[in-house]
Amino acid sequence: QVQLVESGGGLVPAGGSLTVSCAASGPTFNSYAMGWFRQAPGKEREFVAAINWISSSTRYADSVKGRFTISRDNAKNTLYLQMNSLKPEDTAVYYCAAKRQGYTIVVVNADEYDYWGQGTQVTVSS
After folding, report:
1. φ, ψ (nearest 5 deg) of residue 3
2. Each residue of 75-112: pLDDT tens digit?
3. Which residue from 19, 98, 22 is spatially nearest to 53, judged by alpha carbons?
4. φ, ψ for residue 89 (rounded to 5)?
5. Which of 26, 36, 50, 87 could form a disulfide with 2 if both were Cys (CB 3.0 to 4.6 A apart)?
6. Closest Cα partner for 111 from 35, 11, 53?
7. How far lies 122's CA from each of 2, 19, 24, 83, 84, in Å?
8. Closest CA to 6 of 93, 99, 91, 83
9. pLDDT digits 0-9 by tens, 10-28
10. Exposed, middle or buried, 9 (CB in 10 Å: 0-12/13-18/19+)?
């Protein structure tokens, strides 16, 4: 069983920056692809960014491309999402997710992930 715990959310003014983290734990956490998703009030959960285990490939939603950067530190079992030039429309609960057997693959479909964190709130004020 893998546990994912997000942290780092908060309130930031428009144009500001924030980095959220996702700490993974579990005896079998190896070769997992990971991703970030978000859900704003009244909206469905949407894909934000994804990365494979060896960090050789990433994918981004068009809405965040050029502003957000996904990265990971496998020695620390931690996933990051650095968010720059934040906009009010980035306000949402941000979730990390992990998928088994993700050594080289990048996964953008939420249904393909095996584990989810509880989320961290990011609020961007205008």
Report:
1. -110, 140
2. 999 999 999 999 999 999 999 999 998 889 999 999 99
3. 98
4. -75, -5
5. 26
6. 35
7. 24, 10, 20, 10, 13
8. 93
9. 999 999 999 999 999 987 7
10. middle
